[in-house]
Design a protein that fits this description.
By secondary structure, this protein is of the alpha/beta class.
């Protein structure tokens, strides 16, 4: 029996969601904010980049062919974060999450042995989050994808307690993937909105979950952080120092912040083999999962090669390549997965 290679960070584009919100009050303002945050140079690149990848983002046949080329057996597919639309009112938000969940489930159902899916929840309306999670699970999705914050709400907000409780109880996967950084125009050149913004947002969101005690109250939560958790895992020593020396920093959580890293999951998409080795060291090889950000340009077209470049032990490499995710996603290992990875061939 060969452990499958599992990519937990792969996206789908949902044109039907964009058609749904087109013309709604608030869309123009949301687009203007996105333009300010990214700047004109980034927007000029983003459009053509996405258009070149539309088939990979929407067509199951094209997706599976690309997966075969990468040596990936299974993808955990989540909507493009551009579909969060946290600006929508309650009525529109419910329509967005239902349509996104249904469209993602339909896409994955075309290749059920190779595709698993995640839905969306409207973080801007905490009262809808449990219902949205239940809707996703009812469609056979494994959980939901969320951003690092919603307007005027951090993930530590008590209003989300029912959501965290239900996610823990149900065993749902919660994939933390930021969209937009609140540093705004400070990052509007040189694509800093992504290169600096995404890891910053990951670090802030995870710090809220740690320091507020959310992870104390919900130790069984299956939370996967994109982009290797951003800056937090490699700079967690500063958090530990603050927790031990300042009463305000240590007031909300029971243990050293670094101890909670072993309670979370992280994808491997850090773009540096030494950073990946450090992530494995601080979080544990059993908490790191292969991730590619398929098929966007800030991802990797050779996720197994990027993993191999970290020169992990064979046991750790195979755990990250797919063993950990196979357990997390509860994959049927009796299935005859099509791809038999030649690890040496994938060295970059």
């Amino acid at each position: 029996m060969t452990t499958p290679t599992v990519d937990v960070h792969a996206h789908i584009l949902l044109p039907e969601v964009e058609a749904l919100v087109d013309g709604l009050p608030g869309l123009a303002g949301a687009r203007a904010l996105d333009a300010r945050r990214n700047g004109p140079a980034a927007l000029a690149v983003n459009g053509p980049m996405v258009r070149e990848r539309v088939a990979l983002l929407t067509d199951v046949t094209a997706r599976l062919a690309a997966m075969d080329g990468q040596g990936v057996d299974v993808q955990l597919v989540s909507p493009s974060p551009s579909h969060y639309h946290y600006w929508t009112d309650g009525e529109a938000a419910e329509k967005v999450y239902r349509l996104a969940n249904e469209a993602t489930a339909a896409h994955c159902s075309a290749a059920p042995s190779r595709l698993r899916g995640l839905g969306l929840v409207p973080l801007q309306h905490p009262g809808q989050t449990v219902r949205a999670l239940e809707h996703a699970l009812g469609l056979g999705l494994l959980g939901v994808e969320i951003s690092s914050h919603a307007p005027a709400r951090e993930l530590s907000d008590p209003a989300y307690e029912p959501f965290w409780a239900r996610a823990e109880e149900s065993g749902a996967i919660v994939f933390l993937h930021p969209f937009g950084c609140t540093l705004d125009e400070r990052l509007d050149r040189w694509y800093l909105s992504n290169t600096v913004g995404q890891p910053t947002e990951n670090a802030v969101a995870l710090s809220h979950l740690i320091f507020s005690g959310v992870l104390d109250r919900h130790p069984g939560l299956k939370l996967v952080a994109a982009h290797g958790g951003g800056y937090l895992p490699t700079h967690i020593g500063r958090s530990d120092h603050a927790w031990t020396t300042r009463p305000d920093a240590g007031a909300g959580c029971a243990r050293l912040p670094s101890s909670y890293l072993k309670q979370l999951y992280f994808d491997s998409l850090v773009h540096d083999p030494q950073v990946l080795r450090e992530l494995v060291r601080v979080a544990g090889a059993d908490r790191v999962l292969l991730g590619s950000d398929f098929p966007f340009d800030m991802g990797t077209e050779n996720p197994v090669g990027a993993l191999r470049a970290a020169r992990l032990s064979d046991a750790d490499l195979h755990a990250v390549r797919g063993g950990n995710a196979a357990t997390l996603l509860d994959l049927d290992l009796d299935l005859d997965f099509a791809i038999d990875i030649d690890i040496d061939r994938t060295v970059t």
